[in-house]
UniProtKB/TrEMBL annotation, chains A, B:
Identification of the protein by name: DNA-binding protein
Keyword terms: DNA-binding
Matches recorded under Pfam families: RibD_C (PF01872)
GO biological process assignments: riboflavin biosynthetic process
């Protein structure tokens, strides 16, 4: 059975996955990037951006496994870029430069049509404008038996959560405070009914928590 | 310097300190009591309700210290009881029976006047209806140099947080999901500016986090 999984999704201690004011300079909003400090110091992250060094241990283990058995990715439109509304042109090609760290087909959920965009390293961005279930269906096909990773942002993860379509959700509760921003858990009343916590592991400053869909009898 | 502290304040993983539907049978709302499981299994809690046994370790250490150097307590009206609106009579004397676990002066913040209520074991409930600062002032006096503990509920803790009056806030992030209920961190935009995380300790299923007011230069 293929799964839809969320991995390494960081939250501030007060429940926000980004601060207000997303822009080209601030993908996580103003001051929001601190919730990724735990990840950016790991060896796996260093490797991903072509650097030596970095920490090993629990945080690095989760980072290292983030792409394990992932055959396709799904992203929300705001996670793909700061551009809002219809695509004026094809200039914006994501935050990640010419060789994005996905190396799979990536399905970007958006209200606005745009042609597919092939990047270096095996990443192709497809823009899906007929809903989250269509994006998931296409991603499962593209993943060829492997799992699909939903990268974020919070709005899209919330939509998939509300629909009960996420099989595993790994969140990272950090020791950072944002005060305001975008919540992951908002209007997710079905959470208590449909999901349960299956793992809690702390690594010093952050706590890794894995939620899984409850088994139906 | 006397401090206003919050200790052992439990939250669900999705950020709620109680579920909807508080009533006489359900002080934490329907199904909400599960966020206190970690506390109820400790030796300190067993001792508090006159029972033998219970777990030792990190959770118990926090429970054991919850009343350390506390000279007075402050409670919100909903934490004192499920009664809403003006006090019809003096029948309701709190959730805790004739000998409440406070053993100090307790200031209950309410909109509605009521005479002080002396209980067994040194607890006296005072009903303060002129605001949170007045309650704090009275509690500091009653504490005679010791600290004051703010017990909850979330609404009152939030008000003191927003006013920057809490010196230390110990929260317990549990592995339980509630889906909806009352949030602690809502409209607390000042949190990032005024507070910082000074300790994160995990005990298996829950994570203890201590926030402290930032030092001003």
């Amino acid at each position: 059975m293929q799964k839809l999984v969320v991995r390494c999704f960081a939250l501030s201690l007060d429940g926000f996955s980004s601060a207000p004011g997303q822009s080209l300079e601030n993908p996580f909003g103003k001051g929001g990037l601190v919730i990724m400090d735990w990840a950016r110091q790991t060896r796996s992250f260093h490797k991903m951006i072509g650097q030596e060094g970095g920490s090993t241990g629990i945080d690095d283990d989760f980072m290292a496994k983030a792409m394990d058995n992932i055959g396709a990715n799904i992203l929300g439109r705001n996670m793909f870029g700061p551009v809002r509304g219809p695509w004026a042109d094809d200039d914006w090609k994501g935050w990640w430069g010419p060789n994005p760290p996905y190396h799979t087909q990536v399905f970007v959920v958006t209200h606005h049509a745009r042609s597919a965009l092939a990047m270096e390293g095996g990443t192709t961005f497809h823009f899906v404008n007929d809903g989250i279930e269509s994006a998931l269906q296409q991603a499962f096909v593209a993943a060829q038996g492997k799992d699909v990773r939903l990268g974020g942002g919070a709005t899209l993860v919330r939509q998939y959560l509300q629909a009960g379509l996420i099989d595993e959700l790994h969140i990272v509760i950090t020791d950072k405070l944002l005060g305001s921003g975008e919540r992951l858990f908002e209007g997710t009343d079905n959470l208590a009914r449909d999901y349960e916590c299956v793992e809690t592991v702390a690594s010093g400053t952050v706590t890794h928590v894995r939620l899984a869909k409850k088994k139906r009898d």
